[in-house]
Protein backbone atom coordinates (compact mmCIF):
# COMPACT_ATOMS: atom_id res chain seq x y z
CA UNK A 1 0.00 0.00 0.00
CA UNK A 2 1.42 3.38 -0.98
CA UNK A 3 1.95 6.16 1.57
CA UNK A 4 -0.36 9.19 1.50
CA UNK A 5 2.64 11.43 0.68
CA UNK A 6 3.32 9.31 -2.42
CA UNK A 7 -0.29 9.45 -3.50
CA UNK A 8 -0.22 13.23 -3.50
CA UNK A 9 2.81 13.17 -5.77
CA UNK A 10 2.30 13.40 -9.53
CA UNK A 11 5.33 11.25 -10.30
CA UNK A 12 3.94 8.41 -8.13
CA UNK A 13 0.85 8.23 -10.33
CA UNK A 14 2.76 8.49 -13.60
CA UNK A 15 5.00 5.64 -12.40
CA UNK A 16 1.99 3.56 -11.33
CA UNK A 17 0.23 4.24 -14.64
CA UNK A 18 3.31 3.14 -16.60
CA UNK A 19 3.85 -0.04 -14.65
CA UNK A 20 0.29 -1.33 -14.20
CA UNK A 21 -0.33 -4.43 -16.36
CA UNK A 22 -3.33 -3.84 -18.62
CA UNK A 23 -5.67 -6.78 -19.20
CA UNK A 24 -6.66 -7.17 -22.85
CA UNK A 25 -8.44 -10.53 -23.25
CA UNK A 26 -12.08 -11.49 -22.74
CA UNK A 27 -12.92 -13.79 -19.84
CA UNK A 28 -15.19 -16.63 -20.87
CA UNK A 29 -15.72 -19.87 -18.96
CA UNK A 30 -12.95 -18.96 -16.51
CA UNK A 31 -10.31 -18.52 -19.24
CA UNK A 32 -8.72 -15.48 -20.81
CA UNK A 33 -9.48 -15.74 -24.49
CA UNK A 34 -9.18 -13.90 -27.79
CA UNK A 35 -12.20 -13.16 -29.95
CA UNK A 36 -13.11 -16.00 -32.33
CA UNK A 37 -12.67 -13.47 -35.16
CA UNK A 38 -9.22 -12.55 -33.83
CA UNK A 39 -10.21 -8.87 -33.91
CA UNK A 40 -9.02 -6.25 -31.43
CA UNK A 41 -9.75 -2.57 -30.91
CA UNK A 42 -7.62 0.21 -29.42
CA UNK A 43 -8.47 1.71 -26.06
CA UNK A 44 -7.27 5.31 -26.00
CA UNK A 45 -6.18 7.63 -23.21
CA UNK A 46 -8.33 10.74 -23.89
CA UNK A 47 -5.95 12.97 -21.95
CA UNK A 48 -3.13 12.31 -24.42
CA UNK A 49 -4.71 10.66 -27.45
CA UNK A 50 -2.29 7.72 -27.06
CA UNK A 51 -3.32 4.09 -27.48
CA UNK A 52 -3.14 2.26 -24.16
CA UNK A 53 -3.74 -1.29 -25.37
CA UNK A 54 -5.43 -3.38 -28.06
CA UNK A 55 -8.43 -5.08 -26.51
CA UNK A 56 -10.22 -8.21 -27.68
CA UNK A 57 -13.24 -7.22 -29.76
CA UNK A 58 -15.99 -9.70 -28.93
CA UNK A 59 -19.00 -10.06 -31.19
CA UNK A 60 -22.17 -12.19 -31.30
CA UNK A 61 -20.19 -15.46 -31.47
CA UNK A 62 -18.16 -14.61 -28.37
CA UNK A 63 -21.28 -13.40 -26.56
CA UNK A 64 -22.90 -16.74 -27.39
CA UNK A 65 -19.88 -18.58 -25.95
CA UNK A 66 -20.11 -16.48 -22.80
CA UNK A 67 -23.85 -17.05 -22.39
CA UNK A 68 -23.37 -20.79 -22.93
CA UNK A 69 -20.71 -20.92 -20.23
CA UNK A 70 -22.86 -18.80 -17.89
CA UNK A 71 -25.83 -21.11 -18.46
CA UNK A 72 -23.70 -24.19 -17.89
CA UNK A 73 -22.38 -22.89 -14.57
CA UNK A 74 -25.86 -21.87 -13.46
CA UNK A 75 -27.50 -25.17 -14.35
CA UNK A 76 -24.72 -27.12 -12.67
CA UNK A 77 -25.34 -25.09 -9.49
CA UNK A 78 -21.62 -24.43 -9.03
CA UNK A 79 -22.35 -21.04 -7.52
CA UNK A 80 -26.03 -20.73 -6.68
CA UNK A 81 -26.03 -23.97 -4.67
CA UNK A 82 -23.12 -22.97 -2.48
CA UNK A 83 -24.19 -22.01 1.04
CA UNK A 84 -24.90 -18.32 1.60
CA UNK A 85 -21.88 -18.17 3.91
CA UNK A 86 -19.60 -19.64 1.23
CA UNK A 87 -20.85 -17.18 -1.40
CA UNK A 88 -20.42 -14.27 0.98
CA UNK A 89 -16.82 -15.32 1.66
CA UNK A 90 -15.92 -15.46 -2.03
CA UNK A 91 -17.37 -11.99 -2.66
CA UNK A 92 -15.61 -10.58 0.40
CA UNK A 93 -12.36 -12.14 -0.75
CA UNK A 94 -12.86 -10.45 -4.12
CA UNK A 95 -13.34 -7.13 -2.32
CA UNK A 96 -10.11 -7.78 -0.40
CA UNK A 97 -8.20 -8.43 -3.66
CA UNK A 98 -9.58 -5.24 -5.21
CA UNK A 99 -8.69 -3.38 -2.06
CA UNK A 100 -5.07 -4.50 -2.33
CA UNK A 101 -4.93 -3.04 -5.87
CA UNK A 102 -6.74 0.24 -5.25
CA UNK A 103 -3.99 2.44 -6.65
CA UNK A 104 -3.50 0.34 -9.78
CA UNK A 105 -7.25 0.31 -10.41
CA UNK A 106 -7.44 4.08 -9.90
CA UNK A 107 -4.59 4.60 -12.37
CA UNK A 108 -6.28 2.30 -14.93
CA UNK A 109 -9.57 4.14 -14.57
CA UNK A 110 -7.85 7.50 -15.03
CA UNK A 111 -5.89 6.33 -18.08
CA UNK A 112 -8.88 4.70 -19.72
CA UNK A 113 -11.41 7.51 -19.52
CA UNK A 114 -9.63 10.67 -18.41
CA UNK A 115 -10.98 10.71 -14.86
CA UNK A 116 -8.99 12.58 -12.21
CA UNK A 117 -6.85 10.09 -10.36
CA UNK A 118 -7.61 11.94 -7.12
CA UNK A 119 -11.32 11.18 -7.62
CA UNK A 120 -10.72 7.60 -8.74
CA UNK A 121 -8.41 6.85 -5.80
CA UNK A 122 -10.19 8.97 -3.23
CA UNK A 123 -13.77 8.13 -4.09
CA UNK A 124 -14.71 5.94 -7.06
CA UNK A 125 -12.62 2.83 -6.35
CA UNK A 126 -13.22 2.75 -2.55
CA UNK A 127 -16.94 3.30 -3.20
CA UNK A 128 -17.07 0.43 -5.68
CA UNK A 129 -15.35 -1.91 -3.20
CA UNK A 130 -17.65 -0.79 -0.41
CA UNK A 131 -20.68 -1.56 -2.58
CA UNK A 132 -19.35 -5.04 -3.34
CA UNK A 133 -18.82 -5.65 0.38
CA UNK A 134 -22.31 -4.36 1.13
CA UNK A 135 -23.95 -6.85 -1.24
CA UNK A 136 -21.64 -9.65 -0.05
CA UNK A 137 -22.69 -9.04 3.56
CA UNK A 138 -26.32 -9.26 2.49
CA UNK A 139 -26.00 -12.83 1.20
CA UNK A 140 -26.34 -14.62 4.55
CA UNK A 141 -28.65 -12.07 6.15
CA UNK A 142 -31.61 -12.21 3.80
CA UNK A 143 -34.75 -14.07 4.89
CA UNK A 144 -37.67 -15.21 2.76
CA UNK A 145 -41.39 -15.24 3.58
CA UNK A 146 -43.99 -17.71 4.81
CA UNK A 147 -47.53 -16.94 3.65
CA UNK A 148 -50.50 -16.85 6.09
CA UNK A 149 -52.31 -19.97 4.77
CA UNK A 150 -54.98 -22.16 6.43
CA UNK A 151 -53.80 -24.83 8.91
CA UNK A 152 -52.39 -27.85 7.10
CA UNK A 153 -50.69 -25.71 4.45
CA UNK A 154 -47.35 -23.97 4.27
CA UNK A 155 -46.63 -21.35 1.62
CA UNK A 156 -42.93 -20.68 1.13
CA UNK A 157 -42.33 -17.51 -0.85
CA UNK A 158 -38.69 -17.28 -1.84
CA UNK A 159 -36.59 -15.04 -4.02
CA UNK A 160 -34.62 -17.23 -6.40
CA UNK A 161 -31.95 -16.24 -8.94
CA UNK A 162 -33.13 -15.72 -12.51
CA UNK A 163 -30.32 -17.58 -14.29
CA UNK A 164 -28.13 -15.73 -16.78
CA UNK A 165 -27.90 -11.96 -16.30
CA UNK A 166 -26.51 -9.75 -19.07
CA UNK A 167 -25.04 -6.41 -18.01
CA UNK A 168 -24.18 -3.61 -20.44
CA UNK A 169 -22.47 -0.68 -18.78
CA UNK A 170 -21.09 2.75 -19.71
CA UNK A 171 -17.72 4.44 -19.38
CA UNK A 172 -18.28 7.17 -16.83
CA UNK A 173 -17.67 5.03 -13.71
CA UNK A 174 -16.29 1.83 -15.23
CA UNK A 175 -15.57 -0.28 -12.13
CA UNK A 176 -18.54 1.11 -10.22
CA UNK A 177 -21.01 0.39 -12.99
CA UNK A 178 -19.68 -3.16 -13.34
CA UNK A 179 -19.99 -3.71 -9.58
CA UNK A 180 -23.38 -2.00 -9.26
CA UNK A 181 -24.75 -4.66 -11.63
CA UNK A 182 -22.56 -7.70 -10.93
CA UNK A 183 -22.45 -7.58 -7.12
CA UNK A 184 -26.20 -7.97 -6.45
CA UNK A 185 -26.63 -10.32 -9.43
CA UNK A 186 -23.84 -12.61 -8.18
CA UNK A 187 -24.92 -12.28 -4.54
CA UNK A 188 -28.33 -13.64 -5.58
CA UNK A 189 -26.69 -16.68 -7.23
CA UNK A 190 -26.94 -15.76 -10.91
CA UNK A 191 -24.28 -16.19 -13.58
CA UNK A 192 -23.35 -12.99 -15.42
CA UNK A 193 -22.12 -11.86 -18.84
CA UNK A 194 -20.79 -8.31 -18.64
CA UNK A 195 -20.07 -6.00 -21.59
CA UNK A 196 -18.07 -2.94 -20.56
CA UNK A 197 -18.07 0.20 -22.72
CA UNK A 198 -15.59 0.24 -25.58
CA UNK A 199 -13.98 3.38 -24.09
CA UNK A 200 -13.23 1.79 -20.72
CA UNK A 201 -12.86 -2.00 -20.61
CA UNK A 202 -9.78 -2.26 -18.36
CA UNK A 203 -11.06 -2.39 -14.80
CA UNK A 204 -13.99 -4.70 -15.68
CA UNK A 205 -11.49 -7.20 -17.10
CA UNK A 206 -9.28 -6.95 -14.02
CA UNK A 207 -12.40 -7.37 -11.84
CA UNK A 208 -13.19 -10.67 -13.56
CA UNK A 209 -9.59 -11.89 -13.28
CA UNK A 210 -9.63 -11.20 -9.55
CA UNK A 211 -13.05 -12.85 -9.19
CA UNK A 212 -11.52 -16.13 -10.41
CA UNK A 213 -8.63 -15.68 -7.99
CA UNK A 214 -11.15 -15.12 -5.18
CA UNK A 215 -12.77 -18.48 -5.92
CA UNK A 216 -15.76 -17.59 -8.09
CA UNK A 217 -16.37 -20.76 -10.12
CA UNK A 218 -15.53 -20.71 -13.83
CA UNK A 219 -18.29 -19.43 -16.09
CA UNK A 220 -20.10 -17.51 -13.34
CA UNK A 221 -18.67 -14.14 -14.37
CA UNK A 222 -17.81 -13.63 -18.04
CA UNK A 223 -16.63 -10.35 -19.54
CA UNK A 224 -16.87 -9.72 -23.27
CA UNK A 225 -15.38 -6.38 -24.35
CA UNK A 226 -16.58 -5.07 -27.70
CA UNK A 227 -18.93 -2.62 -29.34
CA UNK A 228 -22.52 -1.86 -28.48
CA UNK A 229 -23.95 -2.47 -31.95
CA UNK A 230 -22.41 -5.96 -32.06
CA UNK A 231 -21.63 -7.44 -28.63
CA UNK A 232 -24.17 -5.30 -26.73
CA UNK A 233 -26.96 -5.99 -29.18
CA UNK A 234 -26.15 -9.73 -29.23
CA UNK A 235 -26.54 -9.86 -25.46
CA UNK A 236 -29.80 -7.91 -25.63
CA UNK A 237 -31.20 -10.26 -28.28
CA UNK A 238 -29.85 -13.53 -26.88
CA UNK A 239 -32.56 -16.16 -26.37
CA UNK A 240 -30.87 -17.63 -23.29
CA UNK A 241 -30.31 -14.43 -21.29
CA UNK A 242 -32.95 -14.09 -18.57
CA UNK A 243 -32.38 -10.50 -17.54
CA UNK A 244 -30.56 -7.51 -19.00
CA UNK A 245 -29.34 -4.69 -16.77
CA UNK A 246 -28.21 -1.55 -18.55
CA UNK A 247 -26.80 1.85 -17.71
CA UNK A 248 -26.32 4.40 -20.48
CA UNK A 249 -28.26 6.69 -22.77
CA UNK A 250 -32.04 6.69 -22.99
CA UNK A 251 -31.80 6.05 -26.75
CA UNK A 252 -29.92 2.79 -26.22
CA UNK A 253 -32.13 1.89 -23.24
CA UNK A 254 -35.11 1.97 -25.61
CA UNK A 255 -33.25 -0.38 -27.96
CA UNK A 256 -32.87 -2.93 -25.17
CA UNK A 257 -36.64 -2.93 -24.65
CA UNK A 258 -37.03 -3.61 -28.37
CA UNK A 259 -34.39 -6.37 -28.32
CA UNK A 260 -36.27 -8.07 -25.47
CA UNK A 261 -39.59 -7.79 -27.29
CA UNK A 262 -38.06 -9.21 -30.46
CA UNK A 263 -36.38 -12.11 -28.65
CA UNK A 264 -37.31 -13.94 -25.44
CA UNK A 265 -39.00 -11.19 -23.38
CA UNK A 266 -36.08 -11.11 -20.97
CA UNK A 267 -36.51 -8.73 -18.07
CA UNK A 268 -34.89 -5.37 -18.84
CA UNK A 269 -33.76 -2.90 -16.18
CA UNK A 270 -32.63 0.51 -17.31
CA UNK A 271 -30.67 3.29 -15.67
CA UNK A 272 -30.62 5.98 -18.33
CA UNK A 273 -30.14 9.68 -18.63
CA UNK A 274 -31.05 12.64 -16.48
CA UNK A 275 -31.34 16.42 -16.39
CA UNK A 276 -31.42 16.73 -12.64
CA UNK A 277 -32.68 20.01 -11.16
CA UNK A 278 -31.05 21.78 -8.21
CA UNK A 279 -33.55 24.21 -6.70
CA UNK A 280 -32.12 26.96 -4.48
CA UNK A 281 -34.60 29.04 -2.46
CA UNK A 282 -33.88 32.47 -1.00
CA UNK A 283 -34.41 31.05 2.50
CA UNK A 284 -31.34 28.81 2.15
CA UNK A 285 -29.11 30.18 4.93
CA UNK A 286 -25.81 28.72 3.76
CA UNK A 287 -25.46 29.78 0.14
CA UNK A 288 -21.69 29.20 0.29
CA UNK A 289 -22.15 25.48 0.94
CA UNK A 290 -24.93 25.35 -1.65
CA UNK A 291 -22.55 26.90 -4.21
CA UNK A 292 -19.76 24.45 -3.29
CA UNK A 293 -22.08 21.52 -3.86
CA UNK A 294 -23.65 22.85 -7.05
CA UNK A 295 -20.17 23.31 -8.52
CA UNK A 296 -18.83 19.91 -7.51
CA UNK A 297 -22.17 18.36 -8.58
CA UNK A 298 -21.77 19.58 -12.16
CA UNK A 299 -17.98 19.28 -12.41
CA UNK A 300 -17.34 15.89 -10.81
CA UNK A 301 -16.12 13.54 -13.55
CA UNK A 302 -16.29 16.53 -15.96
CA UNK A 303 -20.09 16.47 -15.65
CA UNK A 304 -20.24 12.98 -17.15
CA UNK A 305 -22.63 11.77 -14.46
CA UNK A 306 -26.22 10.71 -15.15
CA UNK A 307 -27.46 12.27 -11.92
CA UNK A 308 -25.35 15.47 -12.20
CA UNK A 309 -27.27 18.58 -11.12
CA UNK A 310 -27.16 20.14 -14.58
CA UNK A 311 -30.19 22.46 -14.25
CA UNK A 312 -29.82 25.09 -11.55
CA UNK A 313 -33.18 26.67 -10.70
CA UNK A 314 -32.50 29.61 -8.42
CA UNK A 315 -34.87 32.16 -6.89
CA UNK A 316 -34.70 35.50 -8.72
CA UNK A 317 -34.01 37.47 -5.52
CA UNK A 318 -30.65 35.68 -4.97
CA UNK A 319 -29.75 34.79 -8.55
CA UNK A 320 -27.05 37.45 -9.13
CA UNK A 321 -25.36 36.77 -5.79
CA UNK A 322 -25.46 33.01 -6.26
CA UNK A 323 -24.02 33.29 -9.77
CA UNK A 324 -21.07 35.25 -8.32
CA UNK A 325 -20.47 32.47 -5.79
CA UNK A 326 -20.54 29.89 -8.58
CA UNK A 327 -18.18 31.73 -10.93
CA UNK A 328 -15.66 32.34 -8.12
CA UNK A 329 -15.59 28.62 -7.37
CA UNK A 330 -15.57 27.42 -10.96
CA UNK A 331 -12.53 29.57 -11.70
CA UNK A 332 -10.55 27.17 -9.47
CA UNK A 333 -11.43 24.17 -11.64
CA UNK A 334 -8.92 24.40 -14.47
CA UNK A 335 -8.51 21.35 -16.74
CA UNK A 336 -5.27 19.55 -15.93
CA UNK A 337 -3.33 16.30 -16.26
CA UNK A 338 -5.71 13.66 -14.79
CA UNK A 339 -2.72 11.82 -13.27
CA UNK A 340 -1.68 14.92 -11.35
CA UNK A 341 -3.42 14.82 -7.95
CA UNK A 342 -3.43 18.63 -7.89
CA UNK A 343 -5.62 18.83 -11.03
CA UNK A 344 -9.27 19.73 -10.46
CA UNK A 345 -10.83 18.83 -13.83
CA UNK A 346 -9.92 15.85 -16.01
CA UNK A 347 -10.35 14.97 -19.68
CA UNK A 348 -13.60 14.25 -21.51
CA UNK A 349 -13.97 10.54 -22.26
CA UNK A 350 -13.19 10.87 -25.97
CA UNK A 351 -12.80 13.51 -28.67
CA UNK A 352 -16.18 12.56 -30.21
CA UNK A 353 -18.03 13.13 -26.96
CA UNK A 354 -16.15 16.41 -26.35
CA UNK A 355 -17.25 17.60 -29.81
CA UNK A 356 -20.83 16.73 -28.93
CA UNK A 357 -20.64 18.75 -25.71
CA UNK A 358 -19.16 21.66 -27.66
CA UNK A 359 -22.17 21.57 -30.00
CA UNK A 360 -24.41 22.04 -26.94
CA UNK A 361 -22.22 24.93 -25.81
CA UNK A 362 -22.61 26.55 -29.24
CA UNK A 363 -26.40 26.11 -28.95
CA UNK A 364 -26.22 27.64 -25.47
CA UNK A 365 -24.36 30.68 -26.83
CA UNK A 366 -27.25 31.24 -29.25
CA UNK A 367 -30.06 30.77 -26.76
CA UNK A 368 -28.74 32.01 -23.37
CA UNK A 369 -26.07 34.18 -21.71
CA UNK A 370 -22.61 32.65 -21.35
CA UNK A 371 -21.35 33.52 -17.86
CA UNK A 372 -18.19 31.40 -17.65
CA UNK A 373 -16.06 29.03 -19.72
CA UNK A 374 -17.35 27.77 -23.04
CA UNK A 375 -14.09 26.60 -24.64
CA UNK A 376 -12.51 23.30 -25.60
CA UNK A 377 -8.87 23.26 -24.46
CA UNK A 378 -5.84 21.01 -24.43
CA UNK A 379 -3.44 20.24 -21.59
CA UNK A 380 0.24 20.20 -22.51
CA UNK A 381 -0.94 20.56 -26.11
CA UNK A 382 -2.93 17.31 -26.07
CA UNK A 383 -6.22 15.68 -25.23
CA UNK A 384 -9.93 16.58 -25.06
CA UNK A 385 -10.78 18.97 -22.23
CA UNK A 386 -13.61 21.47 -21.75
CA UNK A 387 -13.68 24.48 -19.44
CA UNK A 388 -16.31 24.64 -16.68
CA UNK A 389 -19.19 26.46 -18.32
CA UNK A 390 -22.20 28.35 -16.96
CA UNK A 391 -25.17 29.69 -18.93
CA UNK A 392 -27.65 32.06 -17.33
CA UNK A 393 -31.02 33.41 -18.55
CA UNK A 394 -31.82 29.94 -19.87
CA UNK A 395 -35.40 29.56 -21.05
CA UNK A 396 -37.21 26.35 -20.02
CA UNK A 397 -37.62 25.36 -23.69
CA UNK A 398 -33.93 25.88 -24.58
CA UNK A 399 -32.06 22.82 -25.82
CA UNK A 400 -29.51 23.20 -23.00
CA UNK A 401 -32.34 23.13 -20.45
CA UNK A 402 -33.90 19.97 -21.85
CA UNK A 403 -31.24 17.62 -23.21
CA UNK A 404 -28.62 15.69 -21.31
CA UNK A 405 -25.29 17.32 -22.20
CA UNK A 406 -23.05 15.06 -20.08
CA UNK A 407 -20.34 17.65 -19.71
CA UNK A 408 -19.21 20.45 -17.35
CA UNK A 409 -22.08 22.72 -18.42
CA UNK A 410 -24.55 24.27 -16.01
CA UNK A 411 -27.83 25.81 -17.24
CA UNK A 412 -29.24 28.41 -14.82
CA UNK A 413 -32.96 29.26 -14.77
CA UNK A 414 -34.71 31.74 -12.47
CA UNK A 415 -38.02 31.45 -10.59
CA UNK A 416 -40.29 33.77 -8.63
CA UNK A 417 -42.15 31.45 -6.22
CA UNK A 418 -42.36 27.87 -4.98
CA UNK A 419 -45.01 26.77 -7.46
CA UNK A 420 -42.92 27.96 -10.38
CA UNK A 421 -39.83 26.23 -8.97
CA UNK A 422 -41.64 22.90 -8.76
CA UNK A 423 -43.11 23.27 -12.24
CA UNK A 424 -39.66 24.01 -13.70
CA UNK A 425 -38.03 21.15 -11.81
CA UNK A 426 -40.61 18.71 -13.21
CA UNK A 427 -40.49 20.10 -16.73
CA UNK A 428 -38.33 17.29 -18.12
CA UNK A 429 -38.66 13.89 -19.75
CA UNK A 430 -36.28 12.62 -17.06
CA UNK A 431 -36.68 11.99 -13.33
CA UNK A 432 -33.42 10.68 -11.92
CA UNK A 433 -32.07 12.99 -9.20
CA UNK A 434 -32.97 16.36 -7.72
CA UNK A 435 -31.74 18.66 -4.99
CA UNK A 436 -33.58 21.26 -2.93
CA UNK A 437 -31.87 23.97 -0.85
CA UNK A 438 -33.98 25.58 1.88
CA UNK A 439 -33.95 26.05 5.63
CA UNK A 440 -37.73 25.99 5.83
CA UNK A 441 -38.64 22.49 7.03
CA UNK A 442 -42.19 22.51 5.69
CA UNK A 443 -40.99 23.72 2.30
CA UNK A 444 -38.32 20.99 2.23
CA UNK A 445 -41.00 18.32 2.70
CA UNK A 446 -43.53 19.96 0.39
CA UNK A 447 -41.14 20.47 -2.49
CA UNK A 448 -39.29 17.14 -2.25
CA UNK A 449 -42.67 15.38 -2.16
CA UNK A 450 -43.75 17.01 -5.41
CA UNK A 451 -40.54 16.67 -7.42
CA UNK A 452 -40.54 13.62 -9.70
CA UNK A 453 -37.16 11.98 -9.10
CA UNK A 454 -35.75 8.72 -7.76
CA UNK A 455 -33.59 10.52 -5.19
CA UNK A 456 -34.27 14.03 -3.88
CA UNK A 457 -31.47 15.47 -1.75
CA UNK A 458 -32.42 18.24 0.67
CA UNK A 459 -29.43 20.53 1.29
CA UNK A 460 -27.19 18.02 -0.44
CA UNK A 461 -26.46 17.41 -4.13
CA UNK A 462 -26.44 13.91 -5.62
CA UNK A 463 -25.92 11.78 -2.49
CA UNK A 464 -24.94 8.16 -3.23
CA UNK A 465 -24.75 5.41 -0.62
CA UNK A 466 -24.92 1.60 -0.92
CA UNK A 467 -27.95 1.60 1.37
CA UNK A 468 -29.94 4.01 -0.83
CA UNK A 469 -31.70 2.83 -4.01
CA UNK A 470 -30.50 4.60 -7.15
CA UNK A 471 -32.63 4.94 -10.28
CA UNK A 472 -35.31 7.06 -11.82
CA UNK A 473 -38.79 7.83 -13.02
CA UNK A 474 -39.94 8.59 -16.57
CA UNK A 475 -37.25 8.19 -19.26
CA UNK A 476 -34.52 7.89 -16.65
CA UNK A 477 -35.36 4.20 -16.51
CA UNK A 478 -36.78 1.44 -14.37
CA UNK A 479 -35.64 -0.63 -11.41
CA UNK A 480 -33.08 0.43 -8.85
CA UNK A 481 -29.37 -0.15 -8.38
CA UNK A 482 -27.82 -0.31 -4.89
CA UNK A 483 -29.49 -1.18 -1.58
CA UNK A 484 -31.53 -4.31 -0.84
CA UNK A 485 -33.88 -3.33 -3.66
CA UNK A 486 -31.22 -4.11 -6.28
CA UNK A 487 -31.84 -7.80 -5.56
CA UNK A 488 -35.40 -7.42 -6.84
CA UNK A 489 -34.02 -7.09 -10.37
CA UNK A 490 -31.97 -10.25 -10.27
CA UNK A 491 -34.44 -12.61 -8.57
CA UNK A 492 -37.97 -13.84 -9.11
CA UNK A 493 -40.53 -14.74 -6.48
CA UNK A 494 -41.08 -18.47 -6.30
CA UNK A 495 -43.81 -20.03 -4.20
CA UNK A 496 -43.87 -23.59 -2.94
CA UNK A 497 -47.29 -24.51 -1.51
CA UNK A 498 -47.10 -27.57 0.73
CA UNK A 499 -50.24 -29.31 2.01
CA UNK A 500 -49.51 -31.72 4.84
CA UNK A 501 -51.50 -34.41 6.63
CA UNK A 502 -52.46 -34.30 10.35
P1 LIG B 1 -24.46 4.51 -24.81
O1 LIG B 1 -25.81 4.45 -24.21
O2 LIG B 1 -24.32 4.43 -26.28
O3 LIG B 1 -23.50 3.35 -24.20
C1 LIG B 1 -23.76 2.64 -23.02
C2 LIG B 1 -23.48 1.16 -23.26
O4 LIG B 1 -24.39 0.66 -24.23
C3 LIG B 1 -22.08 0.88 -23.79
O5 LIG B 1 -21.61 -0.35 -23.27
C4 LIG B 1 -22.33 0.77 -25.28
O6 LIG B 1 -21.36 0.02 -25.98
C5 LIG B 1 -23.67 0.07 -25.31
N1 LIG B 1 -24.38 0.26 -26.58
C6 LIG B 1 -24.27 1.30 -27.44
N2 LIG B 1 -25.06 1.11 -28.51
C7 LIG B 1 -25.67 -0.09 -28.34
C8 LIG B 1 -26.59 -0.84 -29.10
N3 LIG B 1 -27.04 -0.41 -30.29
N4 LIG B 1 -27.02 -2.04 -28.61
C9 LIG B 1 -26.56 -2.48 -27.44
N5 LIG B 1 -25.68 -1.83 -26.68
C10 LIG B 1 -25.24 -0.63 -27.10
O7 LIG B 1 -23.76 5.81 -24.28
P2 LIG B 1 -22.59 6.64 -25.00
O8 LIG B 1 -21.34 6.13 -24.45
O9 LIG B 1 -22.68 6.64 -26.48
O10 LIG B 1 -22.92 8.09 -24.49
C11 LIG B 1 -23.93 8.84 -25.16
C12 LIG B 1 -24.77 9.60 -24.16
O11 LIG B 1 -25.39 8.68 -23.28
C13 LIG B 1 -23.96 10.52 -23.24
O12 LIG B 1 -23.72 11.74 -23.83
C14 LIG B 1 -24.89 10.62 -22.07
O13 LIG B 1 -25.88 11.57 -22.33
C15 LIG B 1 -25.54 9.25 -21.99
N6 LIG B 1 -24.88 8.36 -21.00
C16 LIG B 1 -25.51 8.14 -19.83
C17 LIG B 1 -24.90 7.38 -18.86
C18 LIG B 1 -25.55 7.13 -17.56
O14 LIG B 1 -24.83 6.92 -16.58
N7 LIG B 1 -26.86 7.04 -17.49
C19 LIG B 1 -23.56 6.84 -19.05
C20 LIG B 1 -23.00 7.08 -20.35
C21 LIG B 1 -23.66 7.83 -21.28
P3 LIG B 1 -20.03 0.70 -26.57
O15 LIG B 1 -19.76 1.94 -25.81
O16 LIG B 1 -19.03 -0.33 -26.32
O17 LIG B 1 -20.29 0.92 -28.01
Helix content: 25-40%
Average pLDDT taken over every residue: 97
The biggest sheet, with number of strands, parallel, antiparallel or mixed sense and barrel status, is: 7 strands, mixed
> What small-molecule ligands were found?
NADPH dihydro-nicotinamide-adenine-dinucleotide phosphate
Count of DSSP helices?
A: 16
Rg from C-alpha positions? Answer: 23 Å
Can you walk through the features of this model?
- This protein has 502 residues and is of the alpha/beta class.
- It has 16 helices and 23 strands.
- The chain has helices spanning 4-7, 10-19, 60-76, 84-100, 102-113, 117-138, 174-187, 202-214, 228-237, 250-262, 287-299, 319-330, 351-367, 399-402, 418-425, 441-450; strands at 26-28, 31-33, 40-44, 51-56, 145-147, 153-161, 164-168, 191-195, 221-223, 243-247, 267-271, 277-280, 311-315, 369-372, 376-379, 382-386, 389-392, 409-415, 430-431, 433-437, 455-458, 473-474, 491-499.
- The protein has a 7-stranded mixed sheet, with helices on both faces.
- A hairpin with a 6-residue loop joins strand 3 and strand 4.
- Helix 4 runs antiparallel to helix 6 (117-138).
- The longest helix is centred in the first third of the chain and has 22 residues, at 117-138.
- The mean pLDDT is 97.
- The structure holds NADPH dihydro-nicotinamide-adenine-dinucleotide phosphate.
Amino acid sequence: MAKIADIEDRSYWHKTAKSVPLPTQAIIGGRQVDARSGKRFATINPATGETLADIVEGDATDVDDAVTSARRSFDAGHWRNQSPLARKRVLLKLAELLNAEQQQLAAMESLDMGKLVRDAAGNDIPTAINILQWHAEEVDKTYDEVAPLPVGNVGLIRRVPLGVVGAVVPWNFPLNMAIWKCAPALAAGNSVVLKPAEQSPLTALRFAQLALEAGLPEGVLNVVPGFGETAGQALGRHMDVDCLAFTGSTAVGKMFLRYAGDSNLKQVWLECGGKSPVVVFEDCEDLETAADQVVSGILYNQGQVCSAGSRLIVQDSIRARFLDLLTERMAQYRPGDPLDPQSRLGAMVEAKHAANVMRYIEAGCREATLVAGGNAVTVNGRGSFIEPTIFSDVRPDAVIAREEIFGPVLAVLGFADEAEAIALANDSVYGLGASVWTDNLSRAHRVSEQIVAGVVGVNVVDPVNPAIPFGGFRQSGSGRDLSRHAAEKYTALKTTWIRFKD
